[in-house]
Write a structure and sequence with these properties.
By secondary structure, the protein is α+β, with helices and mostly antiparallel strands. It contains 16 helices and eleven strands. The strands form two sheets. A six-stranded mixed β-sheet has the order 1-2-6-3-5-4, with helices on both faces. A five-stranded mixed β-sheet has the order 7-11-8-10-9, sandwiched between helices.
């Protein structure tokens, strides 16, 4: 891995993989939905959409065809803490890919007519989320967890905020946040760092600006239960709690714990709740780490009549794990799965590009595959049990429920 920092503060990261013929390239901006100002939830995501709607050099159609015409791919996404504009192309088209991405970020027009069209698209996206209860219940769980803090807001925003955002709102936010000190260009594939660095210096001409002050870590909200009545075919449930940031070394034992509990069909919760007892249509656990916090949760979708029984069984499984620990077989299984998944991900140029940027944002340094595998290998069973006892206590749990004919009183008894 190679890293350079330009005089204006932009960082350029690359990893050479000479045996492939492709390159994955990302222009990352260290700004996401948690940076959306009060009353402007969804503005980071709105800007991401607008950068594809025409520049001084290219129409929206020309942007769409720019890399497709040479067999490549162009995309973008907004997360809670960053926005990424990414391309995947044959190695010979790296200059074109970088020209397109730099054009989007520096020359977008924010045409008023296009802005109104895209506002409508995003409002449809928000309505589509409302029609996807398994996704909506997770988003509402995050909102419950950090109620009142930008981390808890929907990445898409809501219909009220998106409807009120003006062109000047978007441009002003972009001027404050799309600045050199917050931009990382990351690439992985058949390339040379010096060549990438030269192209970045030629393509980007963003003037230096002071970094805006960021918010502090989100405190957990005092409310622990959110029940939403919807006419759905299943009752959808998320149970979980805040975790710790990416920089915390306990993330490795927590990854073991998540794997044992609910990551995959061989996990405890899948085998117990779905396979042996038939109480859930779908069940899994998830974990996500951020720069100053994290989240752990368990999702399940179940028949209305079986949902409370399924939740009680989940809580019982968590209590049993805390009191009895995990077996040597479970520990070895989790270690093999984590190491295997890590090695397999290394065969994807996109995954390696994304890892470069994420490690830069979270740690400010690179961790090689061998270093990461060593960190996983050094995890001991007692470390996993220690994390379980700290984070699987029912007194820490938050609960969201979405379904028909649900009431707070019934579910509050289960949570207590």
């Amino acid at each position: 891995m190679r890293k350079s920092k330009l005089p204006n503060g932009m960082r350029v990261l690359s990893e050479r993989i000479p045996w492939v013929r492709s390159i994955s390239l990302g222009v990352w901006v260290d700004v996401g939905s948690r940076d959306d100002p009060p009353g402007q939830a969804g503005i980071s995501h709105f800007i991401e959409h607008m950068l594809f709607k025409g520049t001084r050099k290219r129409s929206d159609e020309e942007i769409a065809k720019s890399l497709e015409s040479v067999g490549g791919q162009l995309n973008a996404f907004t997360s809670r803490e960053s926005t990424c504009y990414l391309a995947r192309v044959l190695d010979e088209y790296l200059p074109l890919a970088l020209d397109v991405l730099s054009d989007l970020i520096q020359n977008s027009l924010f045409d008023p007519n296009q802005l109104e069209k895209e506002r409508g698209v995003i409002l449809e996206e928000i309505r589509d989320l409302e029609d996807s209860p398994s996704e909506l219940v997770v988003d509402n769980f995050i909102k419950l967890l950090w109620d009142g803090h930008p981390m808890g807001e929907f990445i898409l925003g809501n219909s009220g905020t998106v409807s009120s955002l003006s062109r000047e709102d978007l441009l002003s936010f972009m001027r404050r946040n799309y600045i050199p000190g917050k931009v990382v260009v990351a690439a992985a594939g058949n390339l040379h760092h010096e060549g990438l660095l030269s192209l970045v210096e030629e393509s980007f001409h963003i003037s230096t600006s002071p970094l805006p002050q960021r918010d502090g870590p989100p405190p957990p909200s005092s409310k622990r239960l959110e029940v939403m009545e919807r006419n759905t075919s299943l009752t959808h449930i998320v149970l979980g709690a805040p975790a710790f940031p990416f920089s915390d070394q306990r993330r490795y034992p927590f990854l073991f714990l998540n794997n044992i509990l609910g990551d995959g069909m061989g996990s405890r919760l899948f085998q117990t709740v779905r396979q042996r007892n038939g109480l859930a249509y779908n069940i899994y656990s998830f974990i996500d780490f951020f720069r100053d916090t994290g989240v752990f949760g368990i999702y399940l979708g179940a028949n209305h009549k079986k949902a409370r029984e399924a939740l009680k069984l989940v809580i019982s499984e968590l209590e049993e794990l805390v009191t009895k620990g995990i077996t040597d077989q479970e520990f070895a299984y989790a270690k093999s799965r984590l190491k295997g998944a890590m090695v397999l991900s290394w065969e994807s140029t996109t995954a390696r590009m994304e890892r470069l940027a994420q490690l830069e944002f979270f740690l400010g340094k690179y961790l090689s595959l061998n270093r990461t595998l060593k960190e996983i290998e050094q995890v001991e069973k007692d470390m996993v049990i220690s994390v379980a006892r700290e984070y699987l206590s029912s007194s820490r749990f938050f609960l969201t429920v979405l379904g028909p004919e649900v009431s707070d009183e019934d579910w509050e008894r289960d949570l207590i």
